[in-house]
Design goal:
Strands 2-1-3-4-9 form a five-stranded parallel beta sheet, sandwiched between helices. A four-stranded antiparallel beta sheet has the order 7-6-5-8, with helices on one face. The protein has helices at about 40-50, 75-85, 105-115, 220-235; strands spanning about 30-35, 60-65, 90-95, 120-125, 145-150, 155-170, 175-180, 200-205, 210-215. A hairpin with a 5-residue loop joins strand 5 (about 145-150) and strand 6 (about 155-170). It is an alpha/beta fold and about 240 residues long. The chain has one domain (about 20-235). The chain is built from four helices and nine strands. Helix 2 packs across helix 3 (about 105-115).
Length: about 240
């Protein structure tokens, strides 16, 4: 299929209005992120714990920090851990840093939201000060713009990914192409938050999901409401 977008950049699309936190239902959420952003992610974790205290019987969030120590066991082991991690959650919240869009297991965690019918949203965290430089960074590219749902001519739906394909090994010239998502090739149920495309077309996950800025939109107060809204989009 032809490329629909240029290379990822740091431009952020329009941000949606925050959901009224007074109407929030406390949720079990899964935080997906690039481990290089773990210090910024810890800010989100700590704010989440204040309103959603953890205990042995009622964990309020899960996250992807575990996978980093288990990658050596192989792809199937990591996928199994992710499936187990998201199993009892209502929504997957992608915490977006500079290179989150390029991380394989972040993409699989996003894919699980579609496969399992869970809520999905992106929250940009680069507005938080870097732990060494003590300054924010430009917002990263939203990874939900790189995954989409393709409608086959037979009416079935499949996950597709926008990937950089090298066309000339000597010059490393290439182009962005929409291709079948390799880590899950089975048909999926079309997400309730997307408008169904015509046969042979792709609908981006970002078309029906919300993207927020943790700093500019008071994420320390509103992340719970954002997650609640994403869960309600899929009837959870």
């Amino acid at each position: 299929m032809s490329n629909l977008f240029g290379p990822p950049n740091s431009l952020l699309g329009a941000l949606l209005q925050s959901t009224n936190s007074n109407q929030t239902t406390k949720r079990k959420a899964f935080f997906s992120f690039d481990y290089d952003d773990v210090m910024r992610v810890n800010n989100v974790r700590q704010a989440w714990k204040i309103d959603h205290p953890d205990n042995a019987l009622m964990r309020s969030f899960y996250d992807s920090s575990l996978w980093e120590s288990r990658k050596a066991e192989g792809d199937d082991a990591v996928k199994r851990l992710i499936r187990d991690g998201v199993q009892y959650t209502s929504a997957i919240c992608v915490l977006v840093g500079t290179n989150t869009w390029s991380r394989r297991w972040v993409k699989y965690e996003i894919a699980r939201a579609v496969i399992d019918g869970r809520g999905l949203l992106a929250v940009h965290v680069n507005g938080l000060n870097h732990h060494v430089r003590r300054a924010p960074d430009p917002l990263g590219f939203n990874p939900l713009q790189l995954l989409g749902v393709y409608k086959h001519a037979n009416g079935s739906f499949y996950l597709y990914e926008n990937r950089w394909v090298v066309l000339n090994l000597l010059t490393q010239q290439g182009e962005w192409q929409w291709l079948p998502y390799q880590d899950y090739t089975q048909a999926v149920t079309f997400p309730a938050y997307l408008r169904e495309p015509d046969a042979g077309r792709i609908r981006l996950l970002s078309d029906g999901t919300s993207a927020y800025d943790y700093v500019a939109q008071d994420g320390h107060k509103n992340t719970g409401a954002w997650i609640d809204a994403a869960a309600k989009q899929v009837g959870r």
